[in-house]
Amino acid sequence: MDQSEPVLILGGSGQAGSGTAALLRQWHPELPLTIAGRDIDRAQRVADELGGATAVTIDLRRSDLGLPAEHRCSAVVAALWDDRLNGLHYAQDHWLPYLSISSGLVEIAPEVVAGAQRASTSPILVASHFCAGVVVLATLETAREFHRVDTVRIGAVLDESDTGGPAGAADLERWATATTAGMVRSDGVFTWVDGPDAQADVPSTDGVVLPGRSIAILDVPSLALATGAANVRFDMAVGESTARRRGDPASIEIRIDLEGVGPTGAPLSTSRYLVHPAGQRPLTALGIALGVERQLGLRGEAVPPGIHTPEALIDPAYAAERMAEIGASFVDAPGDTDPAASR
Fold first, then answer.
1. Looking at residues 230-240, what average pLDDT do you find?
2. Residue 126 to residue 309: CA distance in whole angstroms
3. Is the pLDDT of residue 167 over 90?
4. CB contact set of 184 (below 8 Å; sequence gap of 6+)
5. Does this model's pTM top 0.90?
6. CA distance 24 to 35
7. Which end of the chain is more exposed for a tag (fewer CB within 10 A), N or C?
8. Phi and psi for 67 in degrees, rounded to 5?
9. How far is CA 222 from each of CA 83, 198, 253, 265, 328, rounded to the nearest angstrom?
10. Is residue 1 within 8 Å of 95, Cβ to Cβ?
11. Residue ranges with strand state E in 84-222
12. Where are the beta strands (DSSP E) in 13-161?
């Protein structure tokens, strides 16, 4: 992979895109970046703050993205909804890695089909998971303590003031329009739940319980297939986070409950939270940056063409180290007595 060419970040001046660019600049100071957006002044400000970056305008309605013919890049990151798949087609036309985060479980079919039709062109990282795959990686790191995982239950508390910028809010609205049902794995079967079956209580770190519901999210099949767990569910509540109840900025809290069998064959269960005091943005940016780093071969070998998911490419232990670096932490859930649960 030619790392002398810049990583093209579509939506690079938005919350997820700019956060990703900042992490990549920190980790790999010599890696060139191109911040792409519709507002050139805003994109230029982000590029200037990063240093060693350029800014361009894009038009997602065009197959060439509105870029000059001589433009070159090493990867395409869609930190926004690539609604016409022109970002993906551009990557395929130039045999480049592509990463997307905004399709959601209910919308990945077009990009999966596009990838399958031209399977030899681009490594495509489907990262439309919660926080771009970070929660999956955190759960898999926790699951290392188990010999067998039977049940995975995730409960995310997303602060109502922390749903992202305009692009993030539009994603949530679009997904809600597509379906109100959630996807779960129950007794080994992937199935949809709605109505009362989709409702759930989601506890915060301070014990306050928020009303939530099962959502249709890629974390469910990713965790089910990676762990072999017969029962997997992901619930989300949008409301006031623990930090904001204390008068601090919005935090994010993701409860990870696992049940199964430990190395000795005895029953084992753990309950812990992945928490970040600055909300979902740093975790989402981390998930994207980890994916770009891996796709380019900046850590490990460059990724071959085909469809990939975060857990198939990124080592959970390494991801956990990066989580700690950006201020995330694992904390015991109230009542959890597992001595390994706090890190």
1. 97
2. 5
3. no
4. 190, 191, 192, 193, 214, 220, 231, 232, 233, 234
5. yes
6. 12
7. C
8. -90, 150
9. 23, 19, 20, 25, 22
10. no
11. 98-100, 123-126, 148-159, 182-186, 189-193, 199-203, 209-214
12. 33-37, 53-57, 75-78, 98-100, 123-126, 148-159
